[in-house]
Amino acid sequence: xxxxxxxxxxxxxPCVITLxxxxxxxxxxxxxxxxxxxxxxxxxVGEWEFAGFGKYEKIFTSTTFIRSIQNMLMxxxxxxxxxxxxxxxxxxxxxxxxxFKKFFRAAIYMPNVxxxxxxxxxxxxxIFNQQYGMLNSLIKFFNGTPINWxxxxxxxxxxxxxxxxGAVGYYMLIFISGIEKIPQDLYEAATIDGASKIQQAFKITxxxxxxVTKTNLTFWxxxxxxxxxxxxxxxxxxxEASVVVPVMYLYDTAFPSRGSTGADPGxxxxxxxxxxxxxxxxxxxxxxVIKDDEVEL
Amino acid sequence: MGFRNKEKIPAHRINWKKEATxxxxxxxLLVWLGFTAAFLLWxxxxxxxxxxxxxxxxxxKFETGLHFENYALAWSQQNVARYFANSLLYSVAGCFFTIxxxxxxxxxxxxxxxxxxxxxxxxxxxxxSVPAVMIVLPIYAITASWRNAPDRLIFxxxxxxxxxxxxxxxxxxxxxTLSRSYEEAAAIDGCSPAGTFWRIMFPLVQPAxxxxxxxxxxxxxxxxxxALIFASSQSVAPVGVGLLQIVNSMRYTGQYGALFAAVIIxxxxxxxLYIFLSEKIIAGVTGGGVKG
Amino acid sequence: xxxxxxxxLVALIALSSVFAGGSSESAGGDGIYSGVELNxxxxxxxxEPQGQILQEAADAFEEETGCRVNIEFRGRDISTIIxxxxxxxxxxxxxxxxxxxxxxxxxxxxxDLTEMAAAAGYENNSYALFNNMSNEWAGFLCSIxxxxxxxxxxxxxxxxxxxxxxxxxxTWDEFLDVCQKLVDAGFQPLALDSTYSDFNFxxxxxxxxxxxxxxxxxxNGGWSDNPGVVAAAEDIIDFVNRGYLxxxxxxxxxxxxxxxxxxxxxxxxxxxxxxxxxNNNTGAGIEWGVFNYPTVPVEDGGNGSTASYAGxxxxxxxxxxxxxxxxxxxxxxxxxGEFDQERADRVPQIPADSNNTCTSLDGxxxxxxxxxxxxxxxxxxxxxxxxxxMIKDVVIQLFEGRFATGEEFAAALDAxx
Lengths: 297, 292, 417
Hints:
The complex is a heterotrimer. By secondary structure, chain B is mainly α. Chain B has helices spanning about 15-20, 25-45, 50-55, 70-75, 80-110, 115-130, 135-145, 150-175, 180-190, 195-205, 205-220, 225-230, 240-255, 255-290.
């Protein structure tokens, strides 16, 4: 085919401009910012003062940042295990020839498409309410003592629970697509050999899901590293230590609010870099540890 | 959701024995579903109740009747109408211009070989996984200096830019699978390459365009982090940020009924969209293989 | 005769200008500020009474002077963005925020209002307390009071009566007696939402070590070395152990304070807006009383401080505002006279104009007029920007009864540094 360079350039240019303006320049500038001190975000480069690794030192000695990293790790590990386990469970149930499969699948995925702000508001204002909330109503019905779900020690788990509820559907769909690509004759052969459904799940389904599990783990990691909305919703008035996450710390450092002394955009940028590095590291690790060599899914 | 169950149910009798082995599966699904339904119903009930009724847990008794005025209050006084219009503007403009930028780029990237092709493709994939926190600070620095640029325009442009890498990458595979014969035939007929794209190739990937637009629409409609920074003023805020402001001011006004009405109003459009398009959305998630 | 004629002439000119002003929309306007535009960043929401009255004042101001006032309702999250916005010189003429933050943080970007205020005789329509504090922090008058509020222990008069309490307590020991009487009469003494836990404990710390020391400790640590901190924490531990906190407290805002309306809880440590909030949320129509946070006399180990919290949400003008006089005149429309009285009645709140009357809380205006210094929000506890969330978390745990001794509490705070 004849190449029309004029057209190629014309077609690709807006996209390239987007990449440069929205991604390349900001990423480079954020990277540079993390090595400088500056009075505020909008300060021109002339006012920047080189700080070496000072900003990284600062965030890693801040107990608030350490707490936010701890919270993030807990979300990653506990949230990850529960979410992926539930997602896999639903995926296995839904692909086992159950009736109304499409309806169930759509219903479980549903929270993913509605505004998470609306979803979080429902959880906070209803499910966890101490006075009239669903959970405490159930407890009272069974004559138990109502629990303060939003006390400092429970709040994190309350937030994690409601987040998981919304997240499961997405990972379930990815698992389902993986399961559906497994050749049916494997199961038929197993059924003839007398393997039960549960045995089939452990012997056939799970081992062949390595590829999609990797996809899911990568998405889960990105999701956790950029976790913000739910923390914000669960600490409406002011940032709270029990649910603080790195992005929230970044926001508070870049845009200082109540009572804090001043902006430190350099430290905020350093938080961004640390998060990006975490995502990158996990991505590389996934590719090394889980190789989808056996079956191309 | 697929209310009209299109599963292939065998015309003959239901195999009860087989169904019985599935029982635990049914129970797990029904518990999950029942929970979802119960809480959505309660929110609906609360949106029609008064504040004291909600606080005392008398939501489904409706002792003082159904308070539809909560919706009127949320819509006009709580400003939901404005948030709604804003979100609609961002989503529609965002979806449209994203396609205008992405589709041509995706087309030439997938069908022509040129020097920077590989680099641009990889850059797009990297850009897709760059977290928003990495880019907001410099972008804030740029936009803050445009004192008189309208916030709405800035946020719309950001949303477009934000969706371009995903959209372009998503469309790559679809353009790549089209047959070369279309272009060859068009060339013989004297159609210019650009004309070939807009008149012939672009319509051919319509299903993919629809799917990716649905995802872009949902993504922009539900955008929160960027909106909090770039569109937090009440007059330009999208529904997510607007709802947060309503929640925050509720402690002063105590209109919990209107709060839940606002939640329902924000929830409803994407929910309705989902009821009609769930098949397409689900196929998009699993088929595309890339995250929205 | 000449004088009379002159007055008549002036009146005629004034009258005609009013009419001209009224019908001048098409002619470009003859009002004194026609052609001027002001951008206001508001901390309210358009649905709140404060927001509605601000909008009404803006409409009236435009009608009167021809000055266009654009209000951007930013909501409470204005506090996270305003600092950066001012630094970036965004298009803001007037903004609303807490006066402590205006005085301590945003003052470099604020217009010096001293002269305009003097010319307008603002001191006669305001509380010296807030103006002095503003001067002290910024070195000049940088903010104008819009919504004053004062702290204390707010109580349900009916429940006090039912428990046979005729006199409000002034010392901590008397306060504990009142709590016991309430418990004996079947009431729960004190509501507490975790949002206000640092405010509540900050008050108690002030009674032992004072605000300045608290601020110092918050910034640099060393809590364990201060016997006052330990004693204050012991008091709270004792208070919690006696069961004087409402069930479920510290609760998620506003669940606990609402129990004053819904259940048998009698008191809450907060600022005066809690009264309107509880009445709105619960529809209970409570008749409220207030007394100062109890003191800890010197002989009991305290410092005898009787200081109380007072603060205000205020209006300020940006330093780069091009029409400061118009902006100032608009602010005066908002915070004095008619519109201020309207706000005091509708919110309800303490009026910003000391000549107006407070219909919701007896004696509030007089109390504010009489004081010349006050405690700030949380009394220095949240002075540490980086650690304030962690400090607050430890304080909440104190109220949750997780520390057995005051030393443990102080050690937990020191572990943060």
